[in-house]
Amino acid sequence: MFIMSEDSQRTQGRDAQSSNIMAGKAVAESVRTTLGPRGMDKMLVDSGGDVVITNDGATILNEMDIEHPAAQMIVEVSDSQEEEVGDGTTTAAVLAGNLLGEAEDLIEQDVHATTIVEGYHEAAEIALEAIDEQVNEADVDDEILRQVAESSMTGKGTGGLTAASLAETVVEAIRHVDTDAGVARDNVTVHTQIGASSNATELVPGIVVDEDPAHDGMPSEVEDASIAVLDVELDVRTGDVDAEYAIDSIDQLNAAIDAEEGELEGYAETVAESGADVVFTTEDVADRVANALANEGVLVFEGLGDSDARQVASATGARRVGDLDDLEESDFGSADRIHTETYGDDDLAFVEGGAAAETVTVFVRGGTEHIVDELERAIGDALDVVATALESGEVVPGAGATEISIADKIREEAAGIEGRKQLAVTAFADAVDIVPRTLAANTGRDPIDVLVDLRAAHESEGRAGLITKGDEVTIDDPFEHGVVDPADVKREAVESATEAATMIARIDDVIAAE
C-alpha cells in the first residue's frame, strides 16, 4: 500500500537526526573563523560574478546558496539575531551549531532527544541568570556606549578608520535620536559614497538623497527652505488612449502649442506662487517648467523613488501632495539648508537642519565598493547595538567573559539535576565554551590552554576575558579594557540558538517530495 508518491524520499530515525545535525554544524562552521577581533573575512562570489567580502555572520549566511532545510534554520537564527539586536549573529550561529554537535554525541549515547531538549531549555534558563549576574552596575553613559560601538566594530572592515574613531560618530548619531519615547533608531540612516578615504566619513544632521537638480540654472544651495514633496508630473498631460489628432491649419497648430505652453506655465506659476523654495517630486518635470522655476530661484528634484520621497517627507515634516491644485503652505516641510554636492559622476542633495535635524545620516566614504559596503555593515551593526544598550541600560563583559560565566554557572547548577537530563545540561555548558575557544583559536593561541586559564581567572577574579590589543593577547577583566556588549545581544543569542538546536534535534523523520 503506497501512502506517498513513489518519487518521495524519506529518511528516518538516526539517519534523519544525523543528516540534519551535520547540516547545521556545517553552516555554523562556515562562519566560526570570522568571530572576534582577529576573525577572518569570507569572499562570496555569486553565479553572476558579483563579489562580497565580509566577516559579518548574517551577510555570509544569507549570501550562501543553502538548500538543506535544517541548515536554513541556522540561517534563520542569524537573521533573528540581526533583526532583534543587530549584532552577535556569528555567536548565535556558532552556538547553535555546537549545541547540535553536543546533542549528536548524547544521541549516540542513547540519550533520548526529548531529554536533550528538556536539558537544553533548563540550561538556557540558567544561562540567562548568569547573564543577569554579569550586568555592569554602572549607568550606561556615552563612554560605555562608545565602548559598545567599538567592541562591535573591532575586527570588521573599517577602511582607514579605527573602530574607536567610528564609535564616536555612532554614539553621536544615536544620542541625536534619543527621545523621551525611546531611541528612534529608524531616524538614523547610512549613506555610502565611493571616493575619497574612509576618513572622510561624517555625520550629517539631516538626510542625503541621491539626486541632482532638474535644471543646471537652479540654485545649488537654499537656506531656510520651505519644501514641497509631490507625486505630480509637471509635464504635458497625455491620455491613456492611443489617439491621433488631425491638424488642418497653422492656426490649429499654434493653438495646440499655445495650449501646451499655457499648461506648462500654469504648473510653474502654481509652484512658484505657493511659496515653496525646494520641490521634490516622484514624477518628471518638463524642461520648460524646470527652466521657468530656475528663473524663479526654485530648486527642483525630479524622479525620486517612493522610498526617497517618504524619507524626505518624514525628515522634513512635509505632506506628500498628489494634485498640484491641493498644494498649500501647510503641506510644506522645512530645513535650515539644502545644498547639492558632486562626487565624481554622482550628484547628492543634502537636506540639513530644521525639521530634517530629527533625522541624521552617517555619510560613509571609501575608496572602493567593497570597502564602503563593509563599512556600511559594520556601522549598521554598531548603531543597532548602541541603540539596544541605551534602551536597556544593561551591558555585560565581552571577549568571551560572559560565556565563561555562563558555562561555569551551568556546570555548578547541573550537579543538582537528576537523571540523564544532567548530561544535556552539562553538554550545553560545553557548547557555550565554543565562543572563548574560537576567540583563542582566531588569535593563534591554543584553545585548551586559554580555556583553562580563563576558567582559573574567572574563579579567582569573578570576570575574565581574552583581551586583544594590537599583537598582545592577555587574560583580564574586559570592563577594564572597554570590551563590552549589550546584555540583550547575549540573551538573544542563547535563546535563538537553543530554540533552533532543540527543534532540529527533535526531528526524526524527513519526507521530501521530488
From TrEMBL:
<dbReference type="GO" id="GO:0140662">
    <property type="term" value="F:ATP-dependent protein folding chaperone"/>
</dbReference>
<protein>
    <submittedName>
        <fullName>Thermosome subunit</fullName>
    </submittedName>
</protein>
<dbReference type="GO" id="GO:0016887">
    <property type="term" value="F:ATP hydrolysis activity"/>
</dbReference>
<keyword id="KW-0547">Nucleotide-binding</keyword>
<comment type="similarity">
    <text>Belongs to the TCP-1 chaperonin family.</text>
</comment>
<dbReference type="InterPro" id="IPR027410">
    <property type="entry name" value="TCP-1-like_intermed_sf"/>
</dbReference>
<keyword id="KW-0143">Chaperone</keyword>
<dbReference type="InterPro" id="IPR017998">
    <property type="entry name" value="Chaperone_TCP-1"/>
</dbReference>
<dbReference type="InterPro" id="IPR053374">
    <property type="entry name" value="TCP-1_chaperonin"/>
</dbReference>
<dbReference type="InterPro" id="IPR027413">
    <property type="entry name" value="GROEL-like_equatorial_sf"/>
</dbReference>
<keyword id="KW-0067">ATP-binding</keyword>
<dbReference type="InterPro" id="IPR002194">
    <property type="entry name" value="Chaperonin_TCP-1_CS"/>
</dbReference>
<dbReference type="GO" id="GO:0051082">
    <property type="term" value="F:unfolded protein binding"/>
</dbReference>
<dbReference type="GO" id="GO:0005524">
    <property type="term" value="F:ATP binding"/>
</dbReference>
<dbReference type="Pfam" id="PF00118">
    <property type="entry name" value="Cpn60_TCP1"/>
</dbReference>
<dbReference type="InterPro" id="IPR002423">
    <property type="entry name" value="Cpn60/GroEL/TCP-1"/>
</dbReference>
<dbReference type="InterPro" id="IPR054827">
    <property type="entry name" value="thermosome_alpha"/>
</dbReference>
<dbReference type="InterPro" id="IPR027409">
    <property type="entry name" value="GroEL-like_apical_dom_sf"/>
</dbReference>
<feature type="region of interest" description="Disordered">
    <location>
        <begin position="1"/>
        <end position="20"/>
    </location>
</feature>
